[in-house]
Amino acid sequence: MKSGATAHGAASETGGNPRLTSMASVGAAVLVALYGLPAAQAQQQPQSQPQAATTPDTLKEVVVTATRRAQTVESVPYSLSVITPTTLQNANITDLASLTQAVPGMSMYDFGARFAGGTTPIIRGLNADSEPRGFRTFEQSPVGMYIGNSPLSEGGYFQLDDLQRVEILRGPQGTLYGAGALAGAIRFIPNPPELGVLSGELSAGSTETAHSSGTGYVVSAVLNAPLGDTLAVRFSAQDDYEPGFINAFGLMRQAGPIPTGAPIPADPSDPVNSPAEFYDTKDWNFQKTFTGRASALWKPTERFRAELAYEYGDVRGAGGPQANPVWPGGAYPIDPRITLPAGGPYRDFTTEDQPFARTTGLASLDLSYDAGFATISSTSSYFKTDGETINDDTDSFGAVSFIAYYAGVPTNPRYLDVQDYTDQAHSFSQEVRIVSAAGPEKPVDYTLGVYYEKSTRDGQWNVSDPGSYQRTVAQGCTQPYFYGATFPDCLVLVGPGDTTFNQADAQNFHDESVYGELTWHFAAHGQITFGGRRYQESFTDLQTYTDYAFSTVIPGVAHGTSPAKNTWKVDPSYEYAGQQYVYVLWSQGFRRGGANSVPLSGFLRESPELDTYAPDTVNNYEAGLKGRFANGLTYDFDLFDDQWNKPQISGSTPIGNLVVFNGNTARSRGFEFQSTGPLLLPGLTYTISYAYADAVLTSNFSLPANNGSGVVLPGELTGTAGQQLPGSPKVSTAGTVTYQHSIAAGYVGSVSLSADYRSHTGVALSGGDSGLQTSAFTLWNLSATLTHDPWNLLFYATNLTDKRAILAPPTALSPSDNPAFIPLSADYIINRPREVGLRLFYSF
Questions:
Q1: Is the peptide bond before 790 cis (omega within 30 degrees of 0)?
Q2: DSSP 762
Q3: Is 4-843 CATH 2.30.170.40?
């Protein structure tokens, strides 16, 4: 019998569960050696027997399609985690950010959904970017993301609803998943329509969040309906409201819409000196989300199937999970006539309300035909996202020395610095795959594919100063302000809409690639997979700069690159006992290069060395043991060494230009372990996982940049060998204990207690923030369910102990900045406090 994909009759990606064999006697010996369990206990329930109605999810066989074939998770010869719908539901995992907090070895800067355009997941610590600054990402994500077979471009936001499972592929996946899967891939697998079945589910729930006076809710619905014998449709929708838990103080009322409305003077008769009208708001950082999916399946024959789907997401709200506990209270530095209260653990200060909104859509068409010798599949998809985020930077900007250029002389007491970030992305992709039929008699399996992608990404960074220009006119100023000037040379220069600064950026990207994997079953239980992918890409970037205060206009000049690259994979594995595997792996990941289109002349000029940035690559060396026993106990252990060449680093230069540049070399080394299985009592099970990733720079880098005074100097962008890469903890672990029991005839109860631990995490690679780090913290979750078909009642409590953890400390300000503003601008990003929810499900 062959191992790996065909060891148990694995099917192609169109479906079909593999036939599982009972554990061999040598497997029983391994069980005793590893776990000390009697072999009789391990063999008491052969996998071929049906699972009992009360068997917990942790003991059920899991089938994945990560390799484009349906096979057991244990037979996939690399590190792979699977998250079930039950886990998502019980742990209140609603989106990608909350998913990363529950999966060891995966992380993400969690600034709330409003920064979805500027954050990406991190796997194995392969990230060199500092915490996001509110804008979209400029470089390609280091982790590939998919809904089904359709790639998700950067910036989109969906909540996790109506999913079969989530597959998390650790390590470079350059062969099957292409550019952008530098550190791994995440696949969200939706439930497809089901032929001949009328079914559905309705649910409603309510939540209470600590430190909040609001009440949250979630309602959802799923309907699967057959339309004849060959056609079925499926609809799902979820509406979710999360109340805020931050109380905001010091907001200015505005005479028009955000962000352009000028602050309203408290004394309209004194437009020059009057303070603003201030107000406070409770539960500021709320979020409201709608996610819906519609799909149709047509299967006129057993060999052919077509699935058309559209997924839509809309999220909007205000503020973020940020608090200022260090402001001692007292006079507002810009207008000392105003007194602000002291800060607190769930209190923040902002002069501007900070709304955000994002809509995302993904349309896909999957076709597949079983030609006998192989399954031929096609995936066509179109992705679109549009987002806007308003960010208040008044207090941070008030600390810098050239505030007079933007706020007037003397300083406008109603000064606002409003950062308005907008972004749009459009992407079309087409993939065609041929996956050979597998079987015990076939010595070779193969997967061949071609891929095409065309995407555009546009962004605007607009900074406005509503009302300051009008105030300087009322003040009698007649000429623009310059450094050291006095009245009447005090006029604030602004553009349309009181804009002080604008940066517009447009990117175009093409990817054409071919790939293939071939698996040779060289022995009854041994196989080796060879894989490769050839990329041919093109990328252009065009940016324009306009700074009205300094009368600086820099027209855009397109910059571009056309990288071509090959990535490879070699992956031998051996089934040394029934469902017990050992493997070694060498795989490569690749991410496209690009261009910055930074100005090369004028006050904002940068070095030509920052004009473009090179592709980066990862070589992954991995070895592991995986297995499953007949009693449901599973284990997965691997060691990895990921060597990163030319790591891409996104950040800003001292003058404020947003750039992506390359370091020299970095490396992530560590191990990962996960296991599930039964404990001492019937119905008592565990799940445990642990990840250690020591991700550091392995050589120095130094690049020239504008020093903030209009002069390009060497060594302004630096990194030192041994520095920890930011954004990911060295140690992360999670564990869950679940007890499931039949309470009475037809009633099944379940209780789960889980804990997630993260060690300290750095938030920046270089500059003043390089020493800053997050808290180390442990979060506890509790859930309980009572099922009586067709009803299911769920109670859950996330962050059970109401732990307050710092996910990102405030950005460091320069020692030359005004010290009065430093404590007022000290915003700490924190986790969501304890949330208790009750949700009722009805299935039919």
A1: yes
A2: B
A3: no
